[in-house]
Every structure is written in structure tokens, then in C-alpha cells.
Amino acid sequence: MSLEQFITKLLNLKESDLQELVSLEKSDESIEFKLKLKPKPTVCPLCGGIVKIHGYYPRKLTHSTFANRKCTILYQQRRYRCEACELTFHEPNPFINSSECLTYETKLNVLKDLKYPEATYTSVARRYNLSVTKVMHLFDTHVSIPRKPLPEVLSMDEHYFPESDYDSLYCCLLMNFQNGEVIDVLPDRRKQYLMQYFSSIKRDTLDYTTQKSELNRVKYISIDLHEPFRDIAAIYFPKALVCADSFHVLEHLTDCFRKVRLNCRNRTENETLQYLLSKFKFVFQHNLNLDNEPKYNRRLGRYLNYRNLRDMMFSFFPELQAAYELKEYYIRLNKTCSIQDAPEAIDKAISIFENAGIEEFEPFYGMLTNWRTEIINSFTTINGIRINNSFIESKNRILEKLLYNGNGFSNFKRTRNRILYCLNKHDTYKF
Asked: Which residues face 222 on adjacent strands?
């Protein structure tokens, strides 16, 4: 490939399109291309009359195809004038169709890079020799993602978002459980805001003949243990089956068990037991292989595997063993129970936790009682998959990375579009 061929490919041109081309490397290592296109047969776009060259309009365009150096196109753009109607207009070109100073290629590179959650506006601006403000403006101009239709199975969850320019510490995520697509991101999770949001959907999509709206599509709702979500479901989706997300139920359970372990550690003055309860807390995890190869513990002066360490703690703290067995009992129930057996199994679990006599588990017993119906509903399966918020929780991890890399975002409208743009595979930019 010749140098001229390389340059024309770089500029997205054909050699036959060029009339003049000069490339210059400047002292700051940036590159400039001075060029003029060959004139093409042209008629007036308004009246179809004969046109003549009216002059040249110099354009200075940023063309960021090199990530390590600035690239500029100095383009002599022809201006035509119609002899019949006196309209003046620019010649068409492959670089740009507006008065902006960025080429299509630059815009595409910026928008493609912003698709990755790891990319920040600052890093993209630095890569393509642009200002951060310009990158944000590009994103705001070309990425505006509308809300998607409500699905049959709706997942609702919140995410901590203290930097928002809304008066709220949490945003609310809505997701299609069946395909993992984020439907919308709301700036507030509070009941009043959610009522306004779903009321507007009902108003805008209501069919006055059938008296049904988009809300009637929703047959199942998966929520965490946030009370306003349940209230909203009762008001706007009265016929939908509301399911308490099993992940949040188990999270509540393990948090109660953690308090049992910490209380045991705080009550004892034995430094060895404090050491065991702190350093080897992972031995209480579900499904951990406890029968690993024994390792020598210098503090205890002997070879021990994880089961030995756990049983040693149990021997000093019988209440810890009782709490562990309760925790494992419910985890097994959660994993193996069917929707048919769920009512009886949950009622039995409520009775067991009520009579366990473990103070730290009282909040979990209260939660089981308060959310009994929704927990039972959570054993419902759709296409063989139990309804839960696992998809939305996995998206939350990406969202956390996005917010962390961005060092917080204050403009919620831009943040909402960026979240949908990064989290949804098919959401894209528009020119």
C-alpha cells in the first residue's frame, strides 16, 4: 500500500476523489492534511438549475483516527451558486454535513468508546484530543434513549446514587426479567415519584375502549424488600403476582447470622477465640468445602482443616452452632422448595425462627412474617427460571463500576442515558 493510499483510507476517501493533498507533521507531533476534493457534476438542490463555483470555504476539522496524536483536516470546501435562483450551498463531502468541526469518524470513535462502562468522559477526551465538555456535548446530542415498553415480568431495584442533581440518595432501575434489558432508570425510588411515573404511563397508554393501558402487560413483579415498591405494585399492578427477591431475603438472613458471630466475638475475652471468629469467618459460608487438606496453624500449634476450625468455635459457642444450622436450613429450603410446597414450608420456617430463641434472628422472623405472601410467590418459575432480581443485580455491578470510574455523576439525564447505553446491548447512538 502506497503512502497516498494509506492516507486516503485513513481519511475515508478514494484516490479518485482527491484533487490536492498535502500532509504535514508539525513540531508538536500533530498531523495536518491539506486537501481539496475534485469537483463533481452538481445541480441546484432547490430548482435543479445550473450552478457555478462561488468560492471556497476553509474548514478546520478534527479527525481523531490516531489515538496518540492530534489529526486535523484543512479542507477547502467549494461553495456553489445557482444561476437561476441564486441559492448558494456547499459541496457534499465524506467528512461532515454540519457546521461542526468534528468529522464523522471522530464522533463514531468517541461514541463507540463511551459504550464501555470503564471509559470516562475525561479518558475519551484525552484519547481523541478533545475537551471533556465537547465529549459530553457529543454524547448528549447523539444519545437519547427512550423508555422501553413494560414487560410481562418486571424487576425493580434501587441503587445508591448520592451525586444526583435530584433530591434523592437512590435511583430506581426497571428491568425486563426475561431478556435482562433495562427498561428505564428513574432518579428517585420514593413512593410519590413512582406514583407520578406510573400514573403518566397509564395516562399516556390508556385505551379508552378496553380501559387497559401498558400497565396491564405486567403479570409478575420482582422486588427487593423496599416497602414502597410493594405499595406501588398494589396500586398500579393489582393483578400482578408480586415476588420478593430471594437474594435480598438471603442477604437479610446472613446479616442476622453475622450479628450472632460478632456478638460471640465481642462477648469473649479469649484472644484466640477472637482471632478465630475474625480470621476464619468464611468457614460459615454455605457450600464451602470444609474437608480441605489440613494446614499448620502456628497460633494453635497444630494441623487443622476448615471443619476443625468451625467445630472448635461451635464447641465454645453453642448459640453460634444453632444459628448456623438455622441459616443453612433456610438456604436449603430456598434452593429446593417448589411453588406448590412453598406455603407450608414458609409457615414452618416462620414457626422455627419464632421459637429459636436467638435474639439476632428476630428481625428475620419479622421479615418472613411481613413478606410471607411475596416470599411464597418468589418460588414461581417462568420458562424454568425462578423469578428473582439476579439479572438486575448483575447490572448493578456494572453500574457500580460506571459510577465509580466516573467519580460520581451529577447530571441525571446524562447519567440515565449513559447507564442505558452501557447496560443495554442494542441501545445505540443516532445521527
From this structure: 155, 243
